[in-house]
Each structure stands twice: as structure tokens, then as C-alpha cells.
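Dear support,

I submitted the protein below through the web form. The confirmation email said the job was done, but the results page showed an empty box. After a refresh the structure appeared. I'm attaching both so you can tell me whether what I see now is the final result or a partial one.
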Amino acid sequence: MDYKNAGVDIEAGYRSVELMKKHVQSTMRPEVLTNLGGFSGAFSMEACKQMEKPTLVSGTDGVGTKLKLAFLMDKHDTVGIDCVAMCVNDIACAGGEPLFFLDYIACGKNYPEKIEAVVSGVAEGCRQANAALIGGETAEMPGFYPLDEYDLAGFAVGVVDEKDIVTGKDLKHGDVLIGLASSGVHSNGFSLVRKVFGLDHENEAESKNILDTYEPRLGQKLGEALLTPTRIYVQALRKIREAGVVIKACSHITGGGFYENIPRMLPEGIRAVIHKDSYEVPQIFRLIAEKGMIEEQMMYNTFNMGIGMVLGVAAAQADPVIAAAQAAGVMAYRIGEAADGEKGVALC
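What the results page shows now:
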């Protein structure tokens, strides 16, 4: 009896590391002081000395049941982007610049080429966020996960000068709310998505057929639309700050949609008024609502509905925000305003 007979292939682990090295290397920043394979990653904070009060900000998250679609489609090179996005977007919400990222992959069986595909997506997400992939862990756990499945989670650290932390405390009546467009469903609500499209049953062949169906209103196959990776907003927010805009409040629209996330950026006594007709809700959300017969409030309480990030700024800075975001390749819309009232969200 040996470890391999027990279900853990150490040699496959070594091969996975070799295959992912080129992807990891592509994310390196000058501040990284260690190489892949050590027990920990080291990152120099020397460049942060110019800040008055350098403050670390962190975020951790996973991809959730969106992974089930990756398994069905046997496509594993985009979910890593989702994992990075969910972490670095939270950091960016606080005004932080991501510095480095670590991933954790747990699988039933280590298939090196599959692990490489996952890490290639993680590396792509890190490049988009200008974060170094400084380390990670691949755990082979036979008997805990099915042989052909895995889970993926991550952890990111960023930095911001204390005086520049975005808290929402200065948001006031008359300030404007700007929505940054999402790339699709992102990485939340997929338990409901799978139920709506009949992807929660045990008939794998039928599920694959559903995902492989071309949807004319989407202009692509359903699976392709649903697996579109989460947009990373780090560069867009950087461009907005460089334009001289003071971001008073910021909310990453994740699980819980508008109703749960927007209040997190509001001070007491301020209400967010959102105008639903201020932008075009993407067809994927209309399809989900129609197919699942889901009420509008539940849609806005579950999905991002086409808006992945909401910013609160002074009214005079609304146009510069939109211009800077669009220069970074992200569509932006004036979707509402802050108003005196009970803390919460009003959609009208």
C-alpha cells in the first residue's frame, strides 16, 4: 500500500506545478521576493513607504456553483478569472490597489492539464488586476470530492493610503450613482440559474445539450453566455481616480444583488434611488426571468442585472466618471442618486 493506491498521486502534483509555472511567472511584479514552490510568498512593501499611512486591505471568495457549468462543458480556463475578480473587486471597492493573490484548488483527482487550465485563468485574472500570483495550493482529496470535480477559492491583498479608503460616510443627498456594466451573470446566483435551465438534474447528457443550445437573443450558446467570466474593475477604478474623481462610495454587486449590496455603501439617513430605465438590462437576465418565471424584485435581489459596480460621486463628477470608465473599456451609466431617507434601496 502507498499514497497513490490511497488515491493521491504525488507525481501528478509535481507535473501540475511544472505546467502552471509559465502562467504564474506571467503575473510577477518587481516586489515579489520568492519563487514558486516555497512554503510562503514574500512581497516587498518598500514602494508603499510614499503613502502617509499605508493600509492593507484583503478579500477572499470562491466561484461557487458556476463551477458545475465548467464541469459539464469541460472548460476550465475562465473560472480562475472569476475567482480573482470576486476578490480584487472587493479590494477595489475600498479604494485599494491589489498587490498579490493566492489560490486554493481542491480536487477529487489531480489531472495536471485540467489544473493547468484553471491556473491559466487565475493568472489571466491576476494580469488584468496587476496582482502577482504569489502562491497557492492544490489539494487532492479522494473520497471527499468526485474524481472529475474540484473547488476553487482565492485570497487577495491590496494596499490603500488610509486617507483614501472608500467608506461611503461622505455620501449625501444629491450625489449621483454611476453603474459600471457587468460582463454577464458574473459568479453569483448560479444555483438558481441551474434550476431555471434544468441543469440541476442527474442527466448529464441533457444538461450538456441545454448548454450547447444556441440562443439567438444572446448571439451565442447558452453555456458560453453563462460561463462568461466576471469583469475585473481594477483598471477602470484606477482610471477614474486618475481623472481626479473622488469616489465617495462603492459597491460590488455580488450575491444579494442590488438590495443587499448597495446599502453596504450607504451611511445612515441616505437612500439609494435607482432608475431601472437608465440602462438596458442584458438579455441573459431577461431570459432567466422569463424561463424561470421570476419576479422582478427577486431578480434584483439575486443578480447584478447588468451592473457589476455602483459608485457614488458628486453630481459635477458624473461625466468624468463615465468618460474615464469608458476609456478603460467599461460602459458606465448614470443610474440614480442618493437621497435623504431611511437607509436602503428604492427601484423606480
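Response: this is the final, complete result; the empty box was a page-load delay. The chain has a mean pLDDT of 95.
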